[in-house]
Amino acid sequence: MAGGLFSMDHPWASAFGVLGNIFSFLVFLAPTPTFVRVCRKKSTEGFSSVPYVVALFSCTLWILYAMVKTSSAPLLTINAFGCVVEAAYIVVYLVYAPRPARLRTLASFLLLNVAAFSLVVVVTVVAVAEPRRVKVLGSICLAFSMAVFVAPMSVILVVVKTKSAEFMPFSLSFFLTLSAVAWFFYGLFTKDLYVTVPNIGGFFFGCIQMGLYFCYRKPKTAGGLTILPTSSTAADTAAAAQLAEEVELAAAAGAHAVAVLPASALPVLAELHRMEQEIGTPRKGDVKTI
C-alpha cells in the first residue's frame, strides 16, 4: 500500500482506509460552524483551545508513525489534512481569544507540539534502532490514544448529570462510530495492532453516546415548558463547578487521533462547554428554571 491510497494488492484494507478517510474528513470539519460563529462574533465565547492543540499533536504523532512505517498511506493523508484543519482552528482562536487564553494556548502548543513532539522524534528516530522504530512509535501512539478515553467517559457523565443530550449531536457520534469501525478493519486487514486496539474503545464509547442521545435527547418538560436547573445554593454552585471541571478535563483529552477517533469529539466537547454556560441562563421563549 506504499504506492498510494488504494492498492489492488490489498483491496479490503484499501477500501476501509478510504472509508476511514471519508468519515474522518467529515469529523475534522465538524467544528467549522463553531469557528464561523467565533469569527462573526469576534469572540471565542469561553471555548477552550486545548482540544484543538491536543488534536494537532495527535495528528503529528500519527503522521510520524505513518512515515516511519512507510506503508500507511491512508493514515498519512487524513492526518496531514487534520494538521491543516486543526492549525487553522488554532490560528482563528489566537486571533479572537482574550490575552490570558491566548497565552495559555501558546504555552500548550509549545509544550505539546514543539517540546513533546521533538522529544518523541529524538527518542524514536535518533535513539531507537530502525528495526524497532515502528514498535516504539506505535506503542507511544497507542498509549496516547488509550489515555484520551477519559474524554468520552467525562462527556457521558456530563450528559447523564444534566440529563440532556441537546448539544451532543447524534450525527457526530454516528460518524465517529463509523470512523472507528472503518479504522478498526483497516488495522485488522493490515495487521496493525496499534490502529486496531484503540478503535475498539472508539466503537464502544460511540455506541454508548448514541444510546444516551436517545435517552436524553429531549430535556425535562413541565406543561410544555423546558426546565433548566440553576445553581442557587452553595452546594449547587460547587456541583456546577465540579461539572465544569469535568468538561474541561474531557476537552483536554479530546484529541482527533484519526487512527483512533474515540467518541470524544471536539465539537461535542465545545458544545458541552456552551451548554454549561446556558444551564443557568434562561433562553428566549417558554423556559422555566428550577
Straight-line N-to-C gap: 59 Å
Number of helices: 11
Q: Level of helix content?
A: over 70%
Structural shape: globular
Q: How do the SSEs run, as a string of H and E?
A: HHHHHHHHHEEHHE
Poorly predicted regions are: 222-273, 275-290
Describe the largest sheet. Answer: 3 strands, mixed
Count the E strands.
3
Beta percentage is: under 5%
Class of secondary structure makeup: mainly alpha
Rg, nearest Å: 20 Å
What strand line-up does the widest sheet have? 1-2-3
The average pLDDT score comes to: 76
Q: Which structural traits does this protein have?
A:
single chain, 290 residues, mainly alpha, 3-stranded mixed sheet, 11 helices, membrane, cell membrane, transmembrane helix
What can be said about this structure in brief?
This is Bidirectional sugar transporter SWEET. With 290 residues, the chain is mainly alpha-helical.
Structural summary, described in words:
The chain is built from eleven helices and three strands, in the order αααααααααββααβ. Helices cover 72% and strands 3% of the residues. It starts with 10 loop residues before the first helix and ends with a strand. The protein has a three-stranded mixed beta sheet with strand order 1-2-3, with no helix packed on it. α2 runs parallel beside α4, α3 runs antiparallel to α4 and α3 packs antiparallel against α6. The protein has 290 residues and is mainly alpha-helical. The protein is globular.
